[in-house]
Amino acid sequence: TWPLTASTYIVDTNSEPGRLSLAYNAVWPNETLRPVNGVVVRFVAGYGSVATAVPNMAKQAVKLMVGHMFEHRENTEIKVLEKIPDGVFDLLAFERIWPV
């Protein structure tokens, strides 16, 4: 492995999805990479430590799902999760990053 210091790359958090780029005047390590998994990026995902960072549509989808589960709380089986309300998917579609 070859860990890179934070000065070696630039984090672009304004793009969706976010991305990493090589910093100005930085160079990639001069070694032969494996043909499979030659580069591995480890990161922590999420919206941050404050609720205001979470998109409103995602919060609304969680509330809708919790309401559905509360309404069907008498069911002791997993079946309550088999049918997720369509509105949950509709709300989360705004946050999904579609492949091009």
UniProtKB/TrEMBL annotation:
It comes from marine sediment metagenome. This is Phage gp6-like head-tail connector protein.
